[in-house]
Design goal:
The complex is a heterodimer of chains A (774) and B (151).
Chain A: E1 27-29, H1 44-47, E2 56-58, E3 64-68, H2 77-89, E4 96-100, H3 117-144, E5 151-154, E6 157-160, E7 165-168, H4 169-177, H5 207-212, E8 227-232, E9 240-245, H6 247-251, E10 255-261, E11 275-280, H7 283-291, E12 294-298, H8 307-318, E13 323-328, H9 331-336, E14 341-348, E15 360-366, E16 369-374, H10 379-390, E17 397-401, H11 415-427, E18 431-434, H12 437-442, E19 450-458, E20 464-472, H13 489-497, E21 505-511, H14 526-544, H15 549-557, H16 584-598, E22 609-618, E23 621-631, E24 637-647, H17 654-674, E25 679-680, E26 683-684, E27 704-708, H18 723-738
Parallel strand pairs in A: 1-4, 3-4, 8-18, 16-17, 20-21, 24-27
Antiparallel strand pairs in A: 2-3, 5-6, 6-7, 8-11, 9-12, 10-11, 13-21, 14-19, 15-16, 15-18, 19-20, 22-23, 23-24, 25-26
Helix pairs in contact in A: 2-3, 3-4, 10-11, 13-14, 14-18, 15-16, 17-18
Chain B: E1 2-6, E2 9-13, H1 21-28, E3 47-50, E4 53-56, E5 69-71, H2 83-90, H3 100-113, H4 119-126, H5 136-149
Parallel strand pairs in B: 1-5
Antiparallel strand pairs in B: 1-2, 3-4, 3-5
Helix pairs in contact in B: 2-5
Classes of the chains: A alpha+beta (774), B alpha+beta (151).
The structure holds FE2/S2 (inorganic) cluster (2 copies).
């Protein structure tokens, strides 16, 4: 094989910079190798003439360098945050170069997860840009001998209007670099009407590369002399290799050796699962060799895990009193009174991420140091697990962050990077670990399977007087503590503790569930199942009360007020409740907007069609969705139109934000239609897109309209919040179209064909899904 | 020895004739624009053109490209952008972008066969290409733009 490499140590930066002629805005500078091996974390910002902080630098030729310290997986974050810096600096976007940071604690949090990159770093980025601008103004004022207060900036220049003089940033960089760095309090941030980029938006700096095959993902990184590895993992979570025979794999052309990887020591955390790696000189040989491995496993305790039996257990637990996490009034005495009481059981199965790029990582262990290249959402977690696995310090782990071919939370968990590092150490070569799609689906950290039980009593007008909700799911903390069975506050908050309705008696509970697979974050996480249960139950009650579901939803949300959840320890997604209060008025507003924009109740629909609505706050963003569905006589569904109203506070990059909500509708379609991971004898049944289908172009919504509320409220999340309300809005639309109530996901469990009575579909707990008990 | 042309350059391959074209492109030639997504012709991320026709390179053995002309995303635009790539940029199609090489190669083949596709023809032509980020609405719009602009 020819030693072609896009990461040749010599002459890096040549050759892969991309086609300059096509670049209209800021450039991305490939920094997948360091310029100076003795200082691996030194960036172009650090090397710039003026660099008042770690995020921005100005060179004497006027080039502005900006560090993107968050991971790019399609949310365009490595454009949007630098854009905020550039705006406050009054920099010309064409003269900006963006580089991707390695994992480095000096940047603070780098875990690109939880829809908080803008929220957590908006102020920091503004201050970073404003600091440089302040110093450039000072430098110009000194040069001209005028007060700084008489100077201001225009695009990439400092101007003294009185004398008509101006001078470019590049010419000022050296003088400015000698000045003291101002304190935060001295800075004057731009007024909104002076913003050049914030709120207007920019295309991704990677757009050209993404359309021409030049973008470098983890899958694409190549190093001279690297080997390829494919790993056979224990088929049951917690299993171990008893013995193995590698004679056959070693006969496969291109296979060099096999290497065992130790099973993890519980709790699993982000350790490798263990197994046998086949090492070869290309990916295909590694795959072929692996198929020929003969391994005897010791499966361990999870071999008895069966997802069908487990489903039944969860439902039974959900019918038992659980741990109260929010109590207002007294639901029990209200339920004991005469009057109708309704209850329902809901179910959402395990879900896999199935990012388009399967997991992959390249590691090079040499001289006691590990350098890795990975599509990771969390490079600092990579440093932590690799250092632990190799017995070296965190500082000796250099983690370069490539582009991510999707992440959705899976790539926050760096087990696959640790595998590459372990194999590089064991083989003495750079090793790239490539997961197959089958590995990706079978060895995920799944979104938790959940059973929910809801109960409400209604007054004569159909309004709830008491509301009980209980959810049961194996919690994410189980990957860090094998005994964890209850939900933690940060996941119970997700659409559960904060049930926003204005009802005098409320109790929110959680029951225990033991995990038998790895559980993890997936785009919007617990909000998926919690919003499904609450918003479906709401729709059911509306129909019971003979009310229009949209009116009824508005009535339950009630008049504008601020939820006080202090007593529950509500984490509010890690944000202060003073800065980001839970305002029902904003939920109401998006709901009204979705009703109006979608033409709710006004549009004539075709036979077999229906519209459904749902509203939900997650990641501090308020979203209402109206979905129109068409169900054919055979029960096939199509989604002609979706309308989503969104209040995410200030929106930095509106076009990109709309795209996130369009994508969320498609992601939600996959969850609803076919998202289901099951297990038999402890082994995951699904393996590839034929048995874990995700929405295709003909199944996805045809048109998703996104309406952004104009707001000066502080910015909130946009990557995840579209998913939770979409799913129940779709299921409520199916009810409107067919009269069939969807209480369990995915839809593939329910026969929607006309004339087929699905009301007898039984839940695993033996109760009928489709009738509310009265 | 298998002789073929990749992006106009003559190549000869001496490895296993069963090796899928995808891995020859990626691991041996370093043409990493063509992506691995599923390995079994279910996602379309690996789509390239064989004699102008879209094929899934993950299930195309080297033996079946002997004497063929193969074009990948790296060369489909010649020295600039193919009109389909330009339309992709105009509509801001990509999110993570990982599926987009395959989507673009598939769309170019679709438009060659059906220069003015209807919605249904777009569905039929593109249903083999998964985008997990969910950019389908923009893909459809970009295909329509490319169809219009290539009159
Ligand atoms: S990788 Fe070839 S179709 Fe998925
Ligand atoms: S853009 Fe991410 S998979 Fe299509």
């Amino acid at each position: 094989m020819t030693a072609i490499s896009n990461l040749s140590r010599r002459g890096f930066l040549k050759g892969i910079v991309g086609s300059g002629a096509l670049i209209l805005g800021a450039h991305y500078v490939p920094t997948l190798l360091w310029a100076d091996e003795s200082a691996p974390n030194r960036t172009q910002v650090d090397l710039a003439t003026l660099h008042p902080n770690i995020f921005v630098g100005v060179d004497t030729d006027g080039t502005v360098h900006i560090v993107a310290h968050r991971s790019e997986m399609g949310t365009v974050i490595r454009t949007s945050l630098p854009m905020v810096v550039a705006d406050e600096l009054d920099a010309d976007w064409k003269r900006v170069k963006v580089e991707q940071a390695i994992g480095d604690a000096r940047y603070g949090d780098q875990n690109t997860d939880g829809s908080h990159s803008i929220r957590s770093f908006y102020d920091t980025m503004r201050q970073a840009g404003a600091t440089a601008r302040f110093m450039l103004i000072q430098a110009a004022a000194q040069q001209w001998g005028v007060p700084a207060s008489e100077c201001k900036t225009d695009l990439h220049v400092v101007v003294h209007s009185a004398s008509g003089r101006q001078i470019g940033y590049g010419e000022l960089a050296t003088a400015a670099s000698k000045l003291p760095v101002p304190k935060k309090e001295e800075l004057q941030l731009k007024k909104k009407d002076a913003w050049r980029y914030i709120g207007k938006g920019m295309d991704s700096i990677d757009l050209t590369d993404l359309c021409t095959g030049k973008a470098l993902y983890g899958m694409d990184v190549r190093l001279d002399g690297m080997l390829y590895a494919s790993i056979e993992h224990p088929p049951v979570f917690g299993g171990k290799v008893k013995s193995y025979d590698d004679k056959a794999p070693l006969q496969v052309a291109g296979v060099q050796q096999t290497v065992p990887i130790d099973a993890f020591k519980p709790p699993c955390g982000f350790q490798p699962l263990g197994g046998i790696a086949v090492i070869a000189d290309n990916t295909w040989s590694a795959f072929q060799g692996r198929k020929k491995l003969n391994i005897a496993w010791e499966h361990g305790a999870n071999e008895t895990y069966d997802s069908g039996a487990y489903e039944k257990e969860l439902h039974e637990t959900a019918r038992q009193p659980g741990k109260a996490i929010r109590t207002e009034g007294d639901v029990d005495s209200e339920f004991a009174k005469a009057g109708p009481v309704f209850e329902g059981d809901y179910y959402v199965p395990l879900l896999a991420h199935a990012s388009m790029e399967p997991l992959v990582a390249l590691a090079d262990f040499k001289d006691g140091k590990a350098t890795v290249w990975a599509p990771t959402q969390n490079p600092q977690a990579v440093q932590a697990i690799v250092s632990q696995q190799l017995g070296i310090s965190k500082e000796d782990v250099i983690c370069h962050v490539t582009l991510l071919g999707g992440g959705f939370g899976r790539k926050s968990k760096p087990d696959y990077v640790a595998e590459a590092a372990v194999l590089s150490k064991k083989t003495g070569h750079p090793v790239k670990v490539v997961w197959t799609r089958e590995d990706d689906i079978k060895f995920d950290y799944y979104n938790a399977v959940a059973a929910m039980y809801l109960k409400a009593s209604l007054d004569a007008k159909g309004k709830p007087t008491a509301w009980l909700q209980r959810s049961v799911f194996p919690p994410i903390p189980s990957i860090f503590d094998v005994n964890a069975v209850y939900g933690d506050a940060s996941h119970l908050q997700q659409g559960w503790t904060d049930m926003p309705y204005n009802i005098p008696n409320i109790r929110v509970e959680n029951g225990p569930a033991k995990a038998h697979v790895r559980i993890g974050w997936l785009r919007s996480v617990a909000n998926i199942y919690h919003a499904f249960a609450v918003q479906t139950f709401t729709d059911e009650l509306a129909h019971r009360a003979g009310r229009d579901p949209a009116d009824y939803l508005l009535e339950l949300i009630g008049s504008p007020r601020t939820l006080n959840l202090k007593a529950t320890g509500y984490p509010n997604y890690g944000a202060s409740p003073d800065t980001y209060p839970w305002e029902t008025g904003r939920l109401r507003r998006v709901t009204e907007m979705a009703i109006e924009k979608s033409g709710w109740g006004k549009r004539k629909l075709r036979k077999g069609s229906g519209m459904g609505i749902a509203a939900h706050r997650s990641f501090l963003t308020y979203v209402a969705a109206v979905v129109e569905v068409e169900v054919s006589a055979d029960g096939d569904i199509t989604i002609p139109r979706v309308d989503m109203a969104v209040d995410a506070g200030l929106v930095v990059n509106p076009e990109i934000t709309r795209a996130q909500f369009e994508g969320a509708a498609v992601f939600g379609t996959s969850v609803a239609r076919s998202g289901e991971i099951t297990a038999k004898d402890g082994r995951i049944v699904q393996s590839n897109f034929y048995d874990y289908p995700v929405a295709r172009i003909n199944e996805a919504p045809y048109q998703t309209n996104v309406y952004l509320v104009e707001s000066d409220a502080p910015p909130a999340g946009v990557g995840e919040p579209g998913v939770p309300p979409f799913v129940p809005a779709l299921c409520n639309a199916i009810f409107a179209a067919t009269g069939k109530r969807i209480r369990q996901l995915p839809l593939s469990r329910t026969n929607l064909a006309r004339g087929v009575d699905s009301s007898r579909t039984q839940a695993a707990n033996g109760r009928p899904w489709l009738s509310l008990s009265e | 020895m298998i002789q073929l042309k990749i992006n106009g350059v003559a190549r000869s391959f001496s490895g296993s004739p069963d090796m899928p074209l995808l891995w020859y492109l990626r691991d041996e030639l370093g043409l990493t624009g063509t992506k691995f997504g599923c390995g079994v012709a279910l996602c379309g991320a690996c789509t390239v053109h064989r004699n102008g026709e879209a094929v899934r390179s993950c299930v195309t053995p080297m033996s079946s490209v002997a004497g063929a002309d193969v074009t990948t995303i790296e060369a489909v635009g010649g020295n600039g952008l193919h009109p389909v790539q330009a339309a992709w940029m105009k509509h801001n199609v990509p999110q993570c972008g990982y599926c987009q090489s395959g989507q673009i190669m598939q769309a170019i083949a679709l438009l060659r066969a059906t220069p003015k596709p209807t919605d249904e023809q777009i569905d039929d032509g593109m249903a083999g290409n998964i985008c997990r980020c969910g950019t389908y609405q923009r893909i459809r719009a970009a295909i329509k733009t490319a169809a219009k602009e290539s009159v």
